[in-house]
Specification:
CATH architecture of the largest domain: 3-Layer(aba) Sandwich
Number of domains: 2
Shape: globular
Radius of gyration: 23 Å
Largest sheet: 7 strands, mixed
CATH superfamily of the largest domain: Type I PLP-dependent aspartate aminotransferase-like (Major domain)
Strand order of the largest sheet: 4-12-11-10-7-5-6
CATH topology of the largest domain: Aspartate Aminotransferase, domain 2
Strand content: 15-25%
């Protein structure tokens, strides 16, 4: 942000007497979270950069928790939104027929679904990912007339009651304040609770009338777990799960809210396995510009809804239709965008594995496409991951933590990020990891004793 623009902003929005965050701390609920890790007041975003009101710029490896796959304020989408508003185009229309919705449906079907031979009906639900998951669970139960939903350890599907029932994190589940019922969990095929025979176990208890488990209506999973710590389900597992669900008459729901819309390379995260889910949940970047929007895709024979049986006041966000159509039209009309995502993902993977992970033997690297995590569970734990994130922020890089005990540094840069900015962000991350978590070396102290010198605990004490 230029000095002149900062001056104008400061004149129109002078900081409060108690400091720039005083109003938030005094009046906003304690439930706020991300701002505690990134304590700056942001005023501008462009591409892969955020600008705070003090003029400092930050490289964004957070991207709105995956809602900004196309970056901040892409010009070609902004121009269409401005034109729509200048022409007094609708902004709210419930589920009425509108030109904006028709154009989005046409683009989505012809550019995304048909080339992938996916014949889904499209349901517009409320504007958040949790709304999409709640819709999918409700539909599965209506179709199968069975209450139970199967989920996986480490899974994260949202903070409403139905979503929490299929979410693994105990702390999140406790926040519901009620007993969370009608769900059953199985070991995810990757992660600390991984067991080698998950599909065999599921098949055995589904087949055994005396297993004590009623057959679920559906199984829901993320093919790449985001909040759970960036764990990637192998393609062969996904194919086996698809076959198992079909054989037992159980619906397969893929929660592609964070891993979809190109985050793993393909538009859908399950394409790499060649499977077709019965129901797919989309949100976050499907809104194109960070605008609230969510979809549920369902096989045609599952669309048994009665008119008005599931509704939501903001299921017809017209600006999101405009933005989403523009993004799909711009990026997904050929396979070039997927190739570019995978190329940048390769750059990230090489840097993490070859330059950063060797700094400590306990660092584990996981990911796919432009969705990567560095796990410090065996390289200092949550305190180290938190300090790395803090130092990155000080140097102008925003990286979130996730996983069990928040030991994972999660990288979700915009898919459109320039190579130079991507490399700059990775360098900041490298420097922070080197300072905080590099493997202790030994030096000969006075008297001849070998002593560690580069440990996080010693440096923290010196500070």
């Amino acid at each position: 942000m230029s000095k002149q623009n900062l001056t104008i902003h400061e004149a129109l929005h002078p900081p409060p007497a108690g400091g720039p965050t005083a109003d938030f701390e005094q009046h906003e609920s304690n439930v706020r979270s991300y701002c505690r890790s990134f304590p700056a007041v942001f005023v501008k975003g462009k591409g892969s950069l955020l600008t705070a009101e003090d003029g400092k710029q930050y490289i964004d490896f957070f991207a709105g928790a995956g809602a900004l796959n196309y970056g901040h304020n892409p010009d070609f989408i902004k121009e269409r939104l401005i034109r729509h508003l200048e022409e007094d185009g609708l902004t709210h229309a419930l589920d009425m027929y509108t030109a904006a919705k028709r154009e989005f449906i046409h683009e989505f079907v012809h550019t995304i679904l048909q080339p992938r031979e996916l014949d889904y009906r499209i349901q517009f639900c409320g504007p958040t990912g949790a709304n999409a998951v709640e819709t999918a669970l409700k539909l599965a139960r209506l179709v199968k007339k069975r209450p139970t939903i199967g989920s996986f350890t480490g899974g994260w599907h949202g903070m409403s009651a139905g979503c929490l029932a299929v979410t693994g994190n105990r702390e999140n589940r406790a926040s519901a304040g009620i007993a969370l019922a009608n769900s059953v969990f199985f070991p995810y095929p990757a992660g600390p609770t991984h067991v080698p025979n998950t599909l065999e176990y599921m098949d055995a208890i589904f087949s055994d009338a005396n297993s004590g488990l009623d057959l679920p209506a559906a199984i829901i999973l993320e093919t790449v777990q985001g909040e759970g710590g960036i764990y990637v389900a192998p393609p062969e597992f996904l194919r086996g799960l698809r076959e198992l669900c079909t054989r037992h008459g159980v619906l397969l729901i893929v929660d592609d809210i964070q891993a979809g819309c190109g985050r793993t390379g393909d538009f859908f995260s399950f394409e790499r396995a060649g499977v077709t889910p019965d129901i797919v949940c989309l949100s976050k970047s499907i809104g194109g510009y960070g605008l609230p929007m969510s979809l549920v895709l369902m096989k045609r024979d599952l669309d048994i809804w009665k008119p008005g049986e599931h509704t939501g006041t903001f299921r017809g966000n017209q600006l999101a239709f405009i933005a989403a159509k523009a993004a799909i039209e711009r990026y997904w009309s050929s396979s070039a965008f997927t190739r570019e995502i995978l190329r940048k993902g390769g750059l990230v993977e090489r840097t993490l594995r070859q330059r950063i992970a060797p700094l400590h033997t306990g660092i584990e690297v996981r990911g796919l496409g432009l969705m990567w995590g560095m796990d410090f569970a065996r390289a200092g734990g949550p305190a180290v991951a938190k300090e790395i994130s803090r130092r990155c922020f000080q140097r102008g890089l925003i990286v979130e933590r996730c996983g069990r005990d928040d030991t994972v540094i999660k990288l979700l840069p915009p898919l459109t990020i320039e190579d130079a900015v991507l490399n700059q962000g990775l360098q900041i991350l490298h420097d922070a990891v080197r300072e905080v978590a590099a493997e202790p070396r030994t030096e000969i102290a006075a008297g001849g004793a070998a002593t560690p010198w580069n440990s996080f605990r010693l440096r923290a004490a010196r500070r």
